[in-house]
C-alpha cells in the first residue's frame, strides 16, 4: 500500500480512489448505496448486470455507512482490511494445525506477497471470502461442524466461487458419515448449512429473472463468464501467443499455470486432509476451466491459500539465506505488480 501510495502521488492520482473505486469496487459500492438493478449494455453485445455480484459484502458496506459517517468506498476498505487480517489469522491456524508454526507463518507471509495481493487491500470480496473459508476449514479440522457449515454459508454469500468451501464441508461430512453411520447431528447440520448461502442467492436471482435454475448463470453469461471446461481460456491463450499482448495477460497465464503445478504438488506430495484438498481443487477447477476475464484468474486463486503449502514447507527446510532471497523476490514482484495493475494496466483486475 505504501509503494502504491507513493507512486500514485507521484503521478497525481489518489491512492484511496484507486483502492476504493477501481473496477468491481465501484459496482459493490453502488449496490450498497442503491441496491440491485443496474445493467450496462455495450456495443459489442456484452450485457453487464449487477446481479452477478453476491450480496454479503455490499450489505456489510451498507451497514457500516449506516452506523459510521463514512462513504461507501471508505467502508469497503475498512471491511476489506479487517477481513484480510481475519483471513491471515485463519490461514495461520490452518497451517499450524497441519504442519506446525514455522510453516504457518511462512504460509501467511507467502499469501500476503502474491503478485496480485494488492487486491487484499482493495474494496473487493476476496479478503472476506478467504476469511470465512479459512476459518471454516479450521472448524472442520477441529471438529466444529456447526461453525464450519455456518462460515461456509457466509462464504457462499460473498463470492460465486464460495461454493468451494461448501463442497469441502460436504465432502468432509460424507467421509465422516461413511466411517461412522451414528455420527452426531452436528455433522448433518453442518453439511446442510454449508451450501445455503450460495444456493439462496442463485435462486433469488433466478426468481427475479424468471428462470429459477438458470437465471444467475444467464447473468454471468452476459459478462462472458461461463464454465466451458477451459475452451474459452484456451482460445484466448492461443490468440495471446500469436502476437503482442499486455503484460497483465502474460502474468495471468504464468500465475494460473503455477497454481495448477502447486495443486499437483499439494495433492501428490503433501496429501493434506480431504476438506483442504477439495476446497483448493474446486477453486482451481473453477479458475482454470472457466472463461471470461482471463486477466482476473490470479485474483480468483487468491482464496486458494493451501496452494502455497508446498512452497511454505520447502522454505522451512531451506537455508535462511535462500528463504530470504525467495521472500525478497516475491516482495519486489508484489510491490511492482500491484502498482502496475492499478495505475498502468489497461485491463480489469
TrEMBL record:
Task: Specify the domain of life of the species encoding this protein.
Answer: Bacteria
Instruction: Enumerate the transmembrane spans.
Output: 67-92, 104-125, 145-175, 187-207, 247-269, 276-294, 300-316, 323-343
Say if the entry is tagged with keyword Transferase.
Answer: yes
- Protein keywords: Endoplasmic reticulum, Glycosyltransferase, GPI-anchor biosynthesis, Membrane, Transferase, Transmembrane, Transmembrane helix
The yes or no answer to whether the keyword DNA damage is present is: no
Could you list the residue ranges forming a coiled coil in this record?
none
Q: What is its main location?
A: endoplasmic reticulum
Membrane topology listed for this record: Multi-pass membrane protein
Q: Could you tell me which pathway this protein works in?
A: Glycolipid biosynthesis; glycosylphosphatidylinositol-anchor biosynthesis
Subcellular location field: Endoplasmic reticulum membrane
Q: Quote the PANTHER family the UniProt record gives.
A: GPI MANNOSYLTRANSFERASE 2
Q: Give the protein name, as stated in the record.
A: Glycosyltransferase RgtA/B/C/D-like domain-containing protein
Amino acid at each position: 500500500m505504501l509503494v502504491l501510495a507513493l507512486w500514485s502521488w507521484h503521478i497525481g492520482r489518489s491512492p484511496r480512489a484507486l483502492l476504493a473505486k477501481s473496477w468491481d469496487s465501484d459496482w459493490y459500492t453502488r449496490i450498497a448505496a442503491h441496491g440491485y438493478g443496474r445493467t450496462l449494455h455495450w456495443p459489442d453485445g456484452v450485457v453487464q448486470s449487477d446481479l452477478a455480484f453476491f450480496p454479503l459484502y455490499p450489505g456489510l458496506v451498507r451497514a457500516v455507512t449506516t452506523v459510521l459517517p463514512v462513504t461507501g468506498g471508505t467502508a469497503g476498505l475498512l471491511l476489506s482490511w479487517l477481513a484480510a487480517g481475519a483471513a491471515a489469522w485463519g490461514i495461520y491456524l490452518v497451517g499450524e494445525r497441519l504442519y506446525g508454526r514455522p510453516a504457518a507463518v511462512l504460509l501467511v507471509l507467502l499469501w500476503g506477497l502474491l503478485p496480485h495481493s494488492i487486491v487484499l487491500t482493495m474494496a473487493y470480496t476476496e479478503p472476506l471470502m478467504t476469511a470465512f473459508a479459512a476459518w471454516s476449514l479450521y472448524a472442520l479440522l477441529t471438529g466444529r461442524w456447526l461453525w464450519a457449515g455456518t462460515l461456509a454459508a457466509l462464504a457462499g454469500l460473498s463470492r460465486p466461487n464460495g461454493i468451494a468451501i461448501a463442497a469441502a464441508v460436504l465432502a468432509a461430512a460424507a467421509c465422516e458419515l461413511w466411517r461412522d453411520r451414528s455420527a452426531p447431528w452436528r455433522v448433518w447440520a453442518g453439511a446442510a448449512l454449508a451450501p445455503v448461502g450460495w444456493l439462496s442467492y442463485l435462486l433469488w436471482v433466478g426468481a427475479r429473472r424468471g428462470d429459477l435454475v438458470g437465471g444467475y448463470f444467464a447473468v454471468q453469461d452476459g459478462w462472458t463468464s461461463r464454465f466451458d471446461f477451459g475452451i474459452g481460456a484456451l482460445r484466448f491463450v492461443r490468440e495471446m501467443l500469436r502476437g503482442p499482448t499486455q503484460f497483465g495477460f502474460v502474468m495471468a497465464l504464468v500465475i494460473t499455470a503455477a497454481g495448477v503445478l502447486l495443486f499437483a504438488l499439494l495433492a501428490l506430495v503433501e496429501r493434506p486432509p480431504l476438506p483442504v484438498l477439495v476446497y483448493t481443487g474446486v477453486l482451481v477447477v473453477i479458475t482454470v476451466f472457466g472463461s471470461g476475464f482471463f486477466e482476473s484468474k490470479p485474483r480468483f486463486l487468491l482464496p486458494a491459500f493451501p496452494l502455497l503449502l508446498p512452497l511454505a514447507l520447502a522454505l522451512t527446510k531451506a537455508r535462511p539465506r535462500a528463504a530470504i532471497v525467495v521472500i525478497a523476490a516475491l516482495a519486489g514482484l508484489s510491490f511492482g505488480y500491484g502498482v502496475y495493475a492499478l495505475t498502468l494496466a489497461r485491463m480489469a483486475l
